[in-house]
Write a structure and sequence with these properties.
Elements: H1 27-42, E1 47-49, E2 59-62, E3 72-83, E4 86-90, E5 100-104, E6 107-113, E7 119-125, H2 126-139, H3 150-171, H4 177-181
Antiparallel strand pairs: 1-2, 2-3, 3-6, 4-5, 6-7
Length: 182
């Protein structure tokens, strides 16, 4: 199975992803997970959500250490607890070259399912917590650019326009950076 990373302004990035149902937990999903791992590492990321590979389903991967073999697949995630605060710079594979500081919880507890559909509870802190929150936002159609400080959003305008000019025609869409900025 081969997957390709999609870039802003692909429409799937702004849409809420669909919940996986029991029939979705099958061999194809396991192959999708493996393909996502390859895409994430090929692009030197530490997380990747289904919408970022043009799959509008509620699943993601995160690599707590960013090391190969350390990837965690979760489906239908839901943050049930948040504690503390982080304000750190983030980037996104679907927004290459764009970075900005974003407020996140320092610790989260996430209820989800693993690749077989088995319920799991993940407690994450610091970088791993930030990764999970960023990828879960993707599942809700929430882009990190909307959570950046106003100054960082203004600085990102030129790069957003470049992405739109490069990828908008490929995806058959045209969106202004103001839409991303919220």
């Amino acid at each position: 199975m081969s997957l390709e990373l999609v870039y802003w302004p692909h429409p799937v990035l702004r849409a809420r992803a669909a919940t996986l149902v029991p029939a979705d937990f099958n061999d194809e999903l396991a192959r999708t997970f493996e393909a996502m791992v390859r895409v994430m590492h090929d692009h030197r990321g530490m997380g990747l959500a289904g919408p970022q590979v043009a799959i509008g389903k509620r699943f993601l991967i995160c690599s707590p250490s960013a090391d190969k073999g350390d990837e965690v697949f979760i489906a239908n995630p839901r943050v049930v607890e948040r504690e503390g605060e982080l304000f750190e710079e983030e980037g996104c594979l679907s927004f290459p070259g764009i970075y900005g500081k974003v407020h996140r919880a320092r610790v989260v507890v996430v209820e989800a399912q693993d690749v077989t559909g088995t319920p799991v509870v993940i407690e994450a802190e610091d970088t791993y917590s930030r990764c999970l929150q960023h990828e879960i936002d993707h599942l809700d159609g929430m882009l990190f650019t909307r959570k950046m400080s106003p100054g960082a959003r203004i600085q990102a305008r030129r790069k957003l326009r470049e992405l739109e000019n490069r990828w908008g025609p490929v995806y058959g869409v045209s969106t202004s950076p103001a839409a991303v900025e919220g």
